[in-house]
């Protein structure tokens, strides 16, 4: 989370997204903080496909009812 957040904070959105993809390949389970950051990254990049895939993962983990996660989902779709 720290690395993804640092990449995102410094405008290295593609690097943050790549690291998130590596987490999934290596079976490291993201938490809600990871998802919120990645949704913001997707919004910044207008990366709708990645955002939709992230949304699917959020639903699978039953995190969509979390207010902060829900706001990040709406923000991502609004910017994409």
Structure in a nutshell:
The chain has 80 residues and is mainly alpha-helical.
Give a written overview of the molecule.
The protein is mainly alpha-helical and 80 residues long. The chain contains five helices and no strands. α4 packs antiparallel against α5. The mean pLDDT is 96.
Give me some keywords for this one:
80 residues, mainly alpha, 5 helices, globular
Global geometry: globular
Question: Structural class of the helices, strands and pairings?
Answer: mainly alpha
Q: Kindly, what is the distance between the CA atoms of the first and last residues, rounded to a whole number of angstroms?
A: 23 Å
> Which radius of gyration do the C-alpha atoms yield?
11 Å
Record the SSE blueprint.
Elements: H1 2-9, H2 13-25, H3 32-45, H4 48-60, H5 67-79
Helix pairs in contact: 1-2, 2-3, 3-4, 3-5, 4-5
């Amino acid at each position: 989370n720290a690395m993804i957040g640092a990449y995102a904070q410094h405008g290295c959105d593609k690097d943050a997204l790549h690291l998130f993809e590596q987490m999934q390949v290596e079976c490291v389970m993201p938490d809600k903080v990871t998802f919120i950051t990645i949704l913001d990254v997707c919004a910044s990049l207008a990366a709708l496909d990645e955002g939709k895939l992230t949304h699917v993962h959020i639903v699978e983990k039953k995190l969509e009812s979390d207010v902060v996660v829900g706001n990040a989902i709406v923000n991502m779709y609004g910017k994409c």
